[in-house]
């Protein structure tokens, strides 16, 4: 809801009223799955989700985007893609803007017809972990599990990307990753780059979403939240 007393879903212009083939949403307010389903219910079989302007860090990452965050199950009939905030403005012949408030007020009004689009897909891997120099923001290294880079695992093997990173409370060179179906991973970081030094994937599979690390009685434990089986507790015993 945006405070006007009308459901946001009910405000989506229908395909019958616009004669458009594609409906465009901006990120925020609800899960991506809700946006795609809302497009379907309005009669569209193609959906575009534009990155929110707040996620561009005032325009520093104008082409960045996020796709995912499924919040519910439904029968998917529409194709969907995600675009950066700058591209979202350009679709409507609008000057890119990244700081207006409230979120989304910089985008064209509901029902505005934009330019024609054509899209295709190519596999370039699941998400990776990036290590940046804190002073320059220059990338030092990036990390991904091998399955996440293999087209054979593009579908059918669960999500093979990182969700959260927890740093070790007692060391500045260790971090713990929740990696969905890739289990949990331990990485060592520094000027040398990123090195995987530990991992755990249960024989029956995992779906780790959240992760946190705490020091308890002089020992560091990290806690993984598996969306299927609950809380797991680990301790890294390497060096």
Show the helix and strand layout:
Blueprint: H1 15-18, E1 23-26, H2 32-41, E2 46-50, E3 79-83, H3 85-91, E4 129-132, E5 139-143, E6 164-167, E7 174-178, E8 184-190, E9 193-200, E10 208-216, E11 219-226, E12 230-234
Parallel strand pairs: 1-2, 2-3
Antiparallel strand pairs: 4-5, 6-7, 7-8, 8-9, 10-11, 11-12
In short:
This protein is mainly β.
3D architecture notes:
The longest helix has 10 residues, at 32-41. The model has no long low-confidence stretch (mean pLDDT 92). The chain contains three helices and twelve strands. Helix content is 9%, strand content 29%.
Q: Key terms for this structure?
A:
four-stranded antiparallel β-sheet; 2 domains; three-stranded parallel β-sheet; 239 residues; mainly beta; elongated; 12 strands; single chain; Glucose Oxidase, domain 1; 3 helices
The percentage helix is under 10%
CATH class of the largest domain: Alpha Beta
The separation of the N and C termini measures 50 Å
* Count of alpha and pi helical runs: 3
Structural class: mainly beta
Shape: elongated
- Give me the count of strands: 12
Following the backbone from N to C, one meets helices and strands in this order, namely: HEHEEHEEEEEEEEE
CATH topology of the largest domain, which one?
A: Glucose Oxidase, domain 1
Rg, Cα atoms, Å: 21 Å
Number of domains: 2
Average pLDDT metric: 92
Percent of residues in beta strands: 25-35%
The largest sheet is: 4 strands, antiparallel
Uncertain residue segments? none
